Amino acid sequence: MKQYCVWAILLVLLLAGITSDASAIPAFARKYDMSCNTCHHPIPKLKAYGDEFAGNGFVLTDKEAPRAYRETGDDLLMLLREVPLALRLEGYGRWQPQTSGRSDMQWPYLVKLLSGGQIAKDVSYYFYFFFGERGEVAGLEDAFLMFNKVFNSELDVYVGQFQVSDPLFKRELRMTLEDYQIYRVKPGKSTANLTYDRGLMLTYGFPTGTDIVVEVLNGAGIGAADGARNFDNDKYKNTAFRLSQDIGEHLRLGGFVYWGREAEDDRTNSLWMAGPDLTVSVENVELNVQYIERHDDNPFYLNPGAEVKTRGAFGELTITPGGDKGRWYTTALYNWVDSEVNALDYQTITGHVGYLLARNFRLVGEYTYDVKEEANKFTVGFVSAF
Fold first, then answer.
1. How far apart are CA 165 and CA 258, in angstroms?
2. Which residues on adjacent β-strands are paired with residue 375?
3. What angle do CA 217, 220, 222 make, to 5 degrees?
4. Eight-class DSSP state of 46
5. Cis ω on the peptide bond leading into residue 304 (within 30° of 0)?
6. Residue range 185-205: average pLDDT?
7. At 40, is the secondary structure helix, strand, or coil?
8. What phi, psi does 270 have (nearest 5°)?
9. d(Cα 143, Cα 279) in Å, to the nearest integer?
10. Which helix (H) or strand (E) holds 379?
11. Averaged pLDDT of the chain
């Protein structure tokens, strides 16, 4: 009972501790003198306008000001007057009575440096660097160049490192501390999943609301290079294909296929992943659903091989009662993974509530029940960007 009281008092203090809007705003909002609410609600979740802005190379064509660039007298040089920088800071207090049996103050939980913008006509960049993540310097995660409207068409090309699942649902934009678990699964010794990887991504959007994405990937994640300065750990490349279709104003349906091969010495693992997804958005309610089947024919690199089948899903419901001008929001997330590798089995139910003290500062409370472990997780904290 004392533990519950400690967390209740802490949450009240957090909610009362800041009474005025923060004046600092992130890099893009700072550049265009606009509120974070123009693109996000609540941060970091993107609204349709913010998604369009990102897809246009972080440029608002009707608001782009010459003052943002240096006057060099060279038409082939677009030199930013100031390099756009922003910071993201998160911290949490957690209590897991059935597992660790103790409370833990995890602030700061992460500190990010973010930057992005246009560096040439129809060429933009974006990256963020972790000063700290869970107490360690994690380094670069997202880091890519974007070539916008290639051949004066709707084709965009991304080169660098990004999340394979970005065309599905962006992990970086979720509201909950609890993750989308099926995207993280790697059976046996496999290095391939739907989180970070290096490669190429091509996207094309049609006026009919149809979007196509093709990815060519190393399949090895974003670890350090080996002694020969190679990032890929084998000779193979993996490929992903994504198709989505808007149906009316409130429904989007999609499908995703990933296939590839990876090797260890003279043994290989062939794998594929596939599944549908959907988004239903009606006024202040949004429902996201993802299902994935995965098949690896030899993820432990045994001789003879032993195949492993895995499947999983998540469902995420977000409600913003006051619309994009409101301060309160709530999210429910269900995670489920069922694998022939029992250690990968996972099932959780999460409830999350947040309050915006400012457009770029939100307080959060989260509860997760782990069905497999019959365990509870309690979290309070903050998410900010400036």
1. 10
2. 370
3. 95
4. B
5. yes
6. 97
7. strand
8. -95, 135
9. 27
10. strand 375-385
11. 87
Q: Which of 282, 39, 289, 331 is nearest to 174 (CA)?
A: 331
Residue-wise pLDDT tens digits, 310-349: 999 999 999 999 888 889 999 999 999 999 999 999 999 9
- Inter-residue contact 337 to 346 (CB < 8 Å): yes
Q: Following DSSP, what letter does each residue of 273-337 receive, concatenated?
A: EEEEEEEEEETTEEEEEEEEEEEES-TT--SS---EEEEEEEEEEEE-TTGGG-SEEEEEEEEEE
Please give the Cα distance from 184 to 195 (Å, whole number).
6
- The pLDDT score that the predictor gives to residue 77 is 84
Torsion angles phi and psi, residue 215, rounded to 5: -125, 135
Q: Report whether 241 contacts 213 (CB < 8 A).
A: yes
Where b means 16+ CB within 10 Å and e means fewer, 85-112 reads: ebbbbbbbbbbbeeeeeebeebeebbbb
Q: What angle do CA 91, 93, 99 make, to 5 degrees?
A: 130
**Each residue's pLDDT tens digit, 208-260:** 999 999 999 999 999 999 999 999 999 999 999 999 999 999 999 999 999 99
Encoding tokens for residue 130? 């972790």
DSSP 69: B
Q: Hey, CA dihedral for 186, 190, 191, 192, is it positive or negative?
A: negative
The secondary structure of 96-116 as a DSSP string is -TTTT-SEEEEEEEEEEEEEE
* 317 alpha carbon, distance to own chain's centre: 16
Q: Which residues pair with 242 in a beta bridge?
A: 213, 256
